[in-house]
User: Which sequence fits this backbone?
């Protein structure tokens, strides 16, 4: 069905130190969702919250009702659930949050050290049919009388393992502030301890129980559940299960990816903001922008700024993020970066649609990668879904709403506002193209269709033949004249296979309310991908705006980081390509 499995991921207090960390959890979840996973995200309270709440629940000399204590303490987890839902919504990841009452997470035993025994699996599956992520509070349950219970300190681990077992999840990952389990605490002074690659459940029980809750490990052993322990934004770590305990081979820590930003508008600023919070992985080393003062006012560090795009491309970096938009100088900058062996990440559909073959050739020559997930659907991973589904089955058609500005205009017009007012609104929100006519006449969606066509078939050829004749706003008047009240008008972009011929068109269409594209509003985008077997896959999300677009760019950057060699390899690399390696590394 175009999904790559169900994962249960637990985000513990050690990775939730402040409200800013919810954005990091979203980056981790987004990367999973765009690989096609459905995720149950189990969250703990922010670090320190449980202790604070336990202290608040104590009154001198009074024996407290443990359910009343649990009722106060669980508010820490409930708050995290709500914060994560909001952070997911900001970038447009379709998600739902349910409390333990809603999923009937039943427990038995001591109220403050209870054990989960049952859960409403149907409710969870129903949500996951519609949404990519379900957020659930860890650590808490309900007893037979519906009273709040806690699963003991570290009990979110137990929630995650219990749900993974009940759901038959494909993966269960406990995400902490360490990259796996070590023979000793790596934070303590002394020689560096060895990290385990794999560990038997029994051996984990010899480690400090504050790392993984021992009760949860015993539960996993009894239920034969394997799981991973690792950090955010990686897949590595320690696999815990029935096998033997083996140490991992030592490896160099990855250095942060050095990024040059071209453009400091809606997308550039979003990427910069996210990169600031990911400083151990991403570091912006240069920003090229036309208006230096405006960029400073928007928060860019003065020392990074230049108004020379090509000077920025030539600086010492691993990746160039092209967020200028348009064809010139974007095309030349991208080609130049790729020739120099820098990876390129762009949200620029126009340049990739127009010069896709040339840019891919430049990437091959420079042994670099060109990534452009954000170019179609912003934070909606439509390109990835099409590629994945095309790899599993034969696609028959793609119908999609791919332009947020047009949605805004159509909605405003139906409310009686003028087109000019609507365009101003779309511009202010950062959705509209430099020339909003490109949104309204179907050109923007046509570019996106070209990229979808490439994701579907691996070929570039459609741009000249996308039929946009029916996209013009004049047609709106015709459609409005005989449409029924319940019908919705949307700009629909379509690719359809008819034997050996592919028809590509963008046009305004009247949609019945039950059409999955009818409910798509404002910057939301959606695609319905049909296969010849009759399956229909729907992908939804936010298709424009700062944070959704920056989310997709950051996911591409983190993929680039996985490709960057470790420091030893990069020293060897430096001899061949001195221009992109720090002088210090060359002298080594
Ligand atoms: N102008 C585009 C839109 C931006 O309105 O959807 C995202 O590609």
Assistant:
């Amino acid at each position: 069905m175009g999904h790559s499995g169900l994962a249960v991921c637990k985000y513990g207090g050690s990775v939730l130190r402040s409200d800013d960390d919810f954005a990091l959890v979203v980056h981790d979840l987004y990367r999973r969702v765009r690989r096609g996973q459905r995720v149950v995200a189990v969250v703990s309270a922010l670090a320190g919250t449980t202790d604070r709440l336990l202290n608040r629940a104590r009154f001198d000399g009074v024996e407290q009702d443990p359910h009343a204590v649990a009722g106060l303490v669980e508010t820490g987890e409930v708050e995290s659930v709500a914060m994560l839902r909001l952070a997911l919504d900001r970038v447009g990841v379709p998600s739902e949050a349910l409390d333990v009452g809603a999923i009937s997470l039943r427990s038995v035993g001591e109220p403050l050290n209870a054990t989960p025994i049952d859960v409403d699996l149907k409710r969870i599956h129903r949500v996951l049919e519609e949404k990519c992520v379900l957020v659930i509070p860890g650590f808490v349950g309900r007893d037979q009388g519906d009273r709040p219970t806690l699963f003991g300190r570290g009990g979110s681990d137990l929630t995650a393992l219990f749900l993974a077992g009940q759901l038959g999840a494909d993966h269960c990952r406990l995400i902490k502030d360490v990259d796996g389990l070590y023979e000793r605490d790596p934070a303590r002074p002394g020689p560096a301890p060895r990290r385990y690659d794999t560990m038997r459940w029994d051996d984990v029980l010899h480690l400090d129980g504050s790392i993984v809750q021992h009760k949860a490990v015993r539960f996993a052993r009894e239920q034969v559940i394997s799981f991973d322990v690792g950090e955010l934004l990686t897949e590595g770590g320690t696999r815990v299960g029935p096998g033997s305990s083996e140490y991992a081979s030592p490896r160099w820590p990855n250095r942060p990816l050095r990024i040059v930003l071209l453009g400091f508008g809606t997308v550039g600023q979003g990427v910069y903001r996210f990169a600031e919070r990911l400083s151990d992985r991403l570091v912006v080393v240069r920003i090229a922008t036309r208006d230096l003062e405006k960029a400073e006012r928007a928060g860019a560090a003065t020392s990074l700024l230049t108004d020379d795009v090509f000077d920025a491309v030539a600086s010492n970096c691993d990746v160039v993020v092209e967020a200028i938009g348009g064809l010139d100088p974007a095309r030349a900058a991208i080609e130049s970066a790729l020739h120099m062996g820098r990876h390129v990440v762009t949200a620029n559909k126009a340049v990739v649609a127009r010069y896709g073959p040339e840019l891919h050739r430049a990437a091959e020559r420079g042994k670099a990668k060109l990534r452009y997930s954000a170019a179609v659907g912003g934070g909606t991973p439509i390109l990835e879904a099409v590629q994945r589904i095309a790899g599993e089955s034969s696609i028959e058609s793609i119908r999609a709403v791919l332009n947020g500005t047009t949605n805004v205009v159509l909605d405003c017009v139906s409310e009686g506002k003028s087109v000019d007012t609507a365009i101003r609104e779309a511009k202010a929100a950062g959705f509209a193209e430099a020339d909003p006519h490109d949104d309204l006449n179907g050109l923007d969606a046509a570019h996106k269709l070209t990229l979808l066509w490439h994701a579907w078939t691996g070929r570039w050829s459609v741009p000249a033949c996308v039929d946009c004749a029916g996209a013009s706003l004049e047609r709106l008047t015709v459609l409005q004249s005989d449409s029924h009240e319940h019908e919705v008008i949307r700009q629909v972009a379509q690719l359809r296979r008819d034997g050996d011929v592919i028809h590509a068109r963008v046009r305004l269409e009247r949609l019945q309310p039950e059409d999955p594209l009818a409910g798509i509003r404002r910057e939301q985008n959606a695609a319905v991908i049909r296969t010849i077997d009759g399956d229909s896959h729907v992908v939804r999300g936010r298709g424009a705006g700062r944070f959704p677009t920056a989310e997709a760019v950051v996911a591409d950057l983190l993929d680039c980081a996985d490709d960057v060699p470790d420091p030893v390899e990069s020293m060897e690399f430096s001899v061949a390509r001195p221009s992109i390696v720090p002088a210090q590394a060359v002298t080594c």
